[in-house]
Write a structure and sequence with these properties.
Layout: H1 2-9, H2 13-34, H3 37-57, H4 65-78, H5 80-86, H6 92-114, H7 127-134
C-alpha cells in the first residue's frame, strides 16, 4: 500500500517534462526583463545589418518592404535625425551606412549606461529651511 502511495507522489515523465519546460520559461522571462532597452536595440540593429548584408550578397537593388519598415522603425527609435537622413532611399549600401551610425549611437548609450553614477541627493529639508538656518 505504501509503495503505491509513494509512486503517485513522484511525477511521471510527461509531468516532469511539463515542469521542466515551465521552469525554463520562468528563467527566460527573468532574463528578458533584465536586458536593457539599449542592449535589445543593439541586438536588433545587428540582426538588421545581417539581413542587409544578405541583400547585398544577393545583389538586391532595393531592400524588401518588410525589412525596410523594420529598419525605419529601429532607426527612428534611436534618433529622428538619422531617420530623416535615411529618407526614402532603399539602396542596401545607404541603409547599411545609416544603420551603422544608429548602432554607433546605441553602443555609446550602452557604454554610458554602464558607467557608475552618483546617486541623486535628496534634500531632507526644503530650500526655505536652509536659508532660515543660515541667517
Amino acid at each position: 500500500m505504501r509503495a503505491a502511495a509513494t509512486r503517485q507522489t513522484q511525477p511521471g515523465p510527461m509531468e516532469r517534462t511539463c515542469l521542466e519546460i515551465a521552469r525554463v520559461e520562468r528563467e527566460a522571462a527573468f532574463r528578458r526583463e533584465r536586458i536593457s532597452r539599449t542592449r535589445l536595440r543593439v541586438r536588433e540593429a545587428d540582426v538588421l545589418i545581417d539581413l542587409i548584408e544578405e541583400c547585398r550578397v544577393r545583389s538586391f537593388r532595393l531592400i524588401p518592404a518588410a525589412l525596410w519598415s523594420a529598419v525605419v522603425r529601429a532607426v527612428g527609435a534611436v534618433d529622428p535625425g538619422l531617420r530623416d537622413r535615411l529618407g526614402i532611399d532603399r539602396n542596401p549600401d545607404h541603409v547599411a551606412d545609416i544603420l551603422f551610425e544608429a548602432q554607433e549611437v546605441l553602443l555609446l548609450r550602452a557604454l554610458d549606461s554602464r558607467r557608475p553614477r552618483l546617486a541623486p541627493i535628496i534634500p531632507l529639508f526644503g530650500e526655505r529651511n536652509r536659508t532660515a538656518a543660515a541667517g
